[in-house]
Write a structure and sequence with these properties.
about 90 residues; alpha+beta; Enolase-like, domain 1; two-stranded antiparallel ribbon; 3 helices; ligase; Lipoate_protein_ligase_C; nucleotide-binding
Length: about 90
Amino acid sequence: MHGEYKVPGGKLVVADLAVSNGLLADVRISGDFFLEPPEALESINRALTGLPAEADETQLSQAVRQALPPEAELFGFSPEAVAVVIRRALA
């Protein structure tokens, strides 16, 4: 499954994922945004993998926020943008 979301005034966020037994699987977030430290992106992917496919945007953005290290800086996107693109990929 594939979804895209252009953040208003920001960057493009892309989600590629699968659903297995009702859970998100093989989640890969990408786009033209910036994230420091770059390895925090893998933390986001891991946090989303295994969540219920029915998770709403609040649950998804909370999982992203909790996965980020305290020093993480997101440029051109947000945990809420990731949640939107996941829901779009699932639609």
